[in-house]
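Item description
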Amino acid sequence: MLTAIGAIGWAAAAPASGQIAGLAPANTDESQVGAYVLPELMPQATGQDAATWVASRRAEVLDLVAGHQFGRTPAEYVPMKPEVWEREAPGLNGLAQRTQARLRIGAGADAQIVRVVLYVPVSATGPVPVLLHLGFSPNALVFDDPGVEEGMGWDVRTRTRVPDRQVRLLAGFDPRPFLERGLAVAHVYYGDIEPDFDGGAAFGVRRLFGDPSAPRAQDAWGAIGAWAWGVSRVVDWLSTERAVDARRIALSGASRLGKTTLWAAAQDPRIALAMPIVSGESGGAISRRNYGETVAAISHPDRYDYWFAPRYQTYSQRVSDLPVDGHMLLSLIAPRPMLLVTGDTDTWSDPRGEYLGAVAATPAWELFGKTGVAEPQPPSETLPTSDLAVFQHVGGHALLPGDLTVMADFMAERLSPTPTRSVAQANAARAANRNRPSAWWASLEGRPDDWFAGAEAAVITRNILSWQDRVSGGWPLMNTTAEPNIGDPTAVGPWGARSALIKATVNEMRFLARRQAASPDPLQVQAVDRALGYILDAQYPSGGWPHSWPVFVNAYDHQATFNDDEMVDLMILLREVATDPRFAFLGAERRAAAQAAFDLGLGFILKSQIRVNGVLTAWCAQHDEVTLEPRSARAFEPASISGGESAGVLLLLMSLDDPGPEVRAAVKAGAEWYRDNAIRGIRVEVGNGDRIVHADPNAPPVWARFYEIGTNRPIFAGRDGVIRYRLAEIEKERRGGYAWYGAWGVPVLERYAEWSRRYGT
């Protein structure tokens, strides 16, 4: 496996003479750098604290880098279909399990095919962190591993498609240091995303957004923007792989792909750690330093102007007017860990300038209590200990074997799995999470329409949009309104950032619909439409919805569930989409699809109602998605009749206009079951982390969470899964940590009294 990458292979190094036609010779004398003034990272007027950075200043910096350097990434959604054609095959002489995928980005015959190879350590027993390396050469050339797919790559000198084996091997990558530390490695060839030559947009992902031959706007994205966008599509797929810990995805790339690494991580907060290698000019280095490569040299029409927004080249002779510089690009990754790899003799890339860029960016990390780089400390030649760190090897514009060892150690130290916690510790951590789920929509839905058009609603909208899952279109189970997703792992909710169907997604859609009515924006329409697609795609042919989708993490996730009112919440939302004028912006076809999904769900409800000796009763918390039989979930959630979840189902049925005979029969039977199984004469005391049942003849009726099918006896279970008939017989942690009793039947019977008078049942 090749590991050394010489400057000769990257074609991004200086011309042999160090001079470009029409430009002054490159300066490599530190004494001739001259004075310069950096743009302020945090102007006094904007405030200098983490809250201000997150709320406003970071977005301003991101917009400046997009508008003046790399170009603006289109917001339009482009579908992607992963084709995993090989899974967990032996790889690298038994060191890893190899999975290979083709990502079909776009529709039909015009789709862009991006090939990814994923190596997971054979020792892995669960999801592991992964390093995604963006490389210069096709996977089959990079890895000496029979079975790696061979296809077509690009000869950038002749600008023609050639077999992978005829592509010039510009760079290898040895995954062993990472695999040996329990880390997975994924590799993607940048030419699959877009070939690297002027005019390559006609053959890459940018063509999916319009005519690549049309004149480019001054802030239009270039090839670096395209490669970065493609990286995020690979992250989309990696996030769905069970072998990968989606919270711990790192990214690396060298030279121009080091710049791409920075720009991809700046825009995609799912990238938990970045390791740009010799990113140099227009990367981490300070452009205002007159040293090595310059803006004029890199954006010259004879070289790499197509990497950038056209506006960037206009600063070639007036770099002091450029409103951004390398330190600002680096700051966009804060507070995530980042390791800059440089070479002490790589004068064209200006390692000193990259180090100074890290020094100037350090305040962004310090806002979050993280550590960075401070003068006069020299660049490290050993494993750095700070969160923003610089590692400088002895050598030039290359990725060396020693770099990989340091990178693997840096990644392993910062992205190692969280130590196993006790149940009590896990529960305490969830309770302390600052963005834990909350009833935020209940506090906002009553606001007047003009509030939804205002500045506060605009901030909440940006926050919500930032948390939408880029793959599925749903939102995670957390408070998505309080702050934007900038990659800060402490901001992620207690159940992670993956999409959720339970107590998530529906209220984000409602908020955005209100916002759209008050302040139209196509991004809001796109977000709601994608979320609707997420819900529609997750529905089973039987009409139910799984506990988790599209990734099944737990053994019970595939089951159709009423748990925590998931199905009821989804169906109420679908009814609103189909009938509420606020969702009219989705169009008749999508609204009709929502109505059809509601009707299919109604059929599931009616068919899954549990019969005992031919008599309808109520529902289990979860049912088999095919047979509709009652199913258990966690060890303490047995297959049973649910006194909790069945209440929401009945209230939904009683909300239907002009219910048919099947619905009326279901409601009557369910209400009678609640009437007959009310528990009287007990009071449940909750406190000190426990639930204790006391006799109390004056207490109002309650219902058990679970009833034994066939006997209607209340049942309880601890984490051992053993069924017991007294709450006191299970462990205290489960007694106090679960809603075993509740007044769920009260609203059912109250509503049924009025409903039955109306419908005569």
Residues 50-70 form the longest helix (21 residues). Residues 1-13 have pLDDT under 50 and may be disordered. DSSP finds 24 helices and 23 strands in the chain.
